[in-house]
Design goal:
Length: 137
Amino acid sequence: MRGWLARFLRRTENLGDAGERQAADFLSQRGFRIIARQHSSRFGEIDLIAVDGDTLVFVEVKTRRTLSAGDPAEAITPRKQAQLTRVALAYLKRNGLLEQRTRFDVVAVLSPADGTAPVVTHYRDAFTPAGTGPMFA
């Protein structure tokens, strides 16, 4: 890729990475233990996996410069929730953790381009896993 598209994608990746770091720091300061970042499987990626007490937490991070397209958390559509659920289920199966208490959180990071401090909002238990079966009860 060349030109404006390549520059746009680099800026977007940098913004996303910075947002994930800010989200991880935010959660760590609140007692979460981050155990994985950018966990990938054939089903997709989960931004952060953390432990909060006795609960394994799958965290999706959305970072934006402005609210012109709405709150960053609004980008977690039902389709995205289903994808995150599949990735989480694959992680639980691979690690023998199907009986582990889990939840899905969303962290929205508003990181203005003017350099002011980012605003981090944590949505605990943001959505119910999409699907059927024991994990979804």
